[in-house]
Amino acid sequence: MRNLIFVEGDATDPVGDGPRIIAHVCNDLGAWGRGIVQAISRRWPSPEREFRRWHRDSADAVERDTAAFRLGAVQMVAVGPELWVANLVGQHGITTERGLRTSTGYEPDGGPPVRYDAIREGLTTLTDQARARGASVHMPRIGCGLAGGTWSEVEPLILATLCARDVPTIVYDLPS
Fold first, then answer.
1. Domain ranges of the chain
2. How would you write the chain as a 3-class SS string?
3. Measured in whole angstroms, how far is the alpha carbon of residue 136 from the centre of its chain?
4. What is the pLDDT of residues 114-169, one digit of tens each?
5. Does 3.40.220.10 match the CATH number of domain 5-173?
């Protein structure tokens, strides 16, 4: 089992050499525009474009034999020869001033959009993807920003998936 490594820096500029995957949590509405995705989009247009396409085309994903867009799913987008962005769908809806906005409307008392089971499922898939590529995984404190999760809930999920299967995993905290 590997230890989780914490560094101060920008997850979109991952440290080290070799194959690397930048992981972040997305919502199941197909919305993109706040949080780490702003930094991702400034560096590479393809993760946003592919995420939006994945969401838009999800109705016929089964027919095309591609991963269906849903909670727990992961989309790998190549942004360099040995660099990928993993769009992990781990939040149900988005938080707004009116409450939790989901595909069925607003839930004033809907709670935070984070879905820990979906993050666990996505991290399991991500573990397999990283091992197949011989890649390290780089991420902010996923699920703990706009998704409203707590690190005390997310960290054990990372330890039980990526770290337990010896995938080098680095968590980035932006400088204060």
1. 5-173
2. CCCCEEEECCCCCCCCCCCEEEEEEEECCCCCCCCHHHHHHHHCCHHHHHHHHHHHCHHHCCCCCCCCCCCCCEEEEEEECCEEEEEEEEECCEEECCEEEECCEEECCCCCCECHHHHHHHHHHHHHHHHHHCCEEEECCCCCCCCCCCHHHHHHHHHHCCHHHCCCEEEEECCC
3. 15
4. 999 999 999 999 999 999 999 999 999 999 998 999 999 999 999 999 999 999 99
5. yes
Q: How far is CA 152 from CA 1, 71, 143, 149, 176, in A?
A: 19, 21, 11, 9, 21
Identify the CA nearest to 170 among candidates 20, 1, 18: 20
Distances, alpha carbon 108 to alpha carbons 81, 100, 112, 143, in Å: 44, 6, 11, 20
pTM exceeds 0.85: yes
